[in-house]
Amino acid sequence: MAANSPNLDPRTSAQAAFAAELRKYRQLRNVTQDQVARALSCDQTLISALENCKRTPQRNQAERLDEFFGLTERRVFVPIYEQIVREARSPRWSVKWADEIEPFATVLRTWAPLLVPGLFQTEAYAREIFTSSPMAPPAAERIEEQINGRMLRKAVLDRVPPPAVWDLIDEGVLHRPIGGAAVLVEQLRYLLEIAHNPAITIQIVPMWAGCAPGLVGTFTLAEVPGRPGAVLMESTGGGHVVTDSLVVAQHQKRYDTIRAHAYPKKQSQQVIRDAIEKWSMQI
């Protein structure tokens, strides 16, 4: 495979990044594939396969490569291996958004017609979503990974300076007892708490608004300095990250149309308080 093959572009996947780094360090250190193979106690054909994205590396191989190339302190291959594992367990669109877009966004705009946005979910609320999936139930360990991953995303809100977050939430979300009344009340209280954060604007779109443009599903718009805008479109079948300027502009227009129906910020907070009072009576 040629060195300029798209499969060796480290931007395409973690496995491609592993292959590119292995080839790079081997050439920088002027060592052959046979020499690397001897250090890993394997055949030269395996090293060739790793460099050409034809084999997935194992953790012990990544560790021994860091040792062989004198990278045990800064570590190069082990972190990439861990990213390969993440990509294997999570949809590529999810990894792309969580690792490459959301952490660097200066502005995030979300429309949430069905559930509280993932960035604002409590652990109990998220747990109910993951455990009640109609798909084949994942192992308990996998559920915990999904929940932890969602909770870790909140770190973006603690950045200095933080991103400006504008969330539009359908009023029906406040009255959908995901996990029961107690879980919903906890979730709504957290939503009200973060709504007072000056970097966060939460607006409730009333149920009576109709708001046909919002019926297409959940989406999030992201602005990242020096890069094209991006939109994450989510549905029951998964998600899709798009950076095409026309698609992003269409969703920005749809977002603005939905926002025109929303309650102002202060009124939205009162609507959340009213929902908390209602559901608290059922605990």
Number of strands: 6
Going across the biggest sheet, name each strand in turn. Answer: 3-2-1-4-5-6
Figure out the total of helices. Answer: 11
* Approximate helicity band: 40-55%
How many domains, as an integer?
A: 2
CATH architectural designation of the largest domain? 2-Layer Sandwich
How would you characterize the largest beta sheet? 6 strands, mixed
- Low-confidence runs (pLDDT<50, min 5 residues)? 1-7
Query: Which CATH class of the largest domain?
Result: Alpha Beta
Radius of gyration: 23 Å
Helix-strand string: HHHHHHEHHEHEEEEHH
- What is the CA–CA distance across the termini? 63 Å
Strand content: 5-15%
Shape: elongated
CATH topology of the largest domain, what is it called? Endonuclease, Chain A
Q: Mean pLDDT, as a whole number? A: 88
* Structural class label: alpha/beta
Describe the structure.
Helices cover 46% and strands 13% of the residues. It is an alpha/beta fold and 283 residues long. It folds into two domains: 6-88, Orthogonal Bundle (434 Repressor (Amino-terminal Domain)); 90-280, Endonuclease, Chain A (2-Layer Sandwich), CATH 3.30.870. The protein has a six-stranded mixed sheet with strand order 3-2-1-4-5-6, with helices on both faces. A hairpin with a 6-residue loop joins strand 4 (218-223) and strand 5 (230-235). Helix 1 packs antiparallel against helix 5 (77-89). The longest helix has 16 residues, at 265-280. The chain starts with 13 loop residues before the first helix and ends with a helix. Residues 1-7 have low confidence and may be disordered.
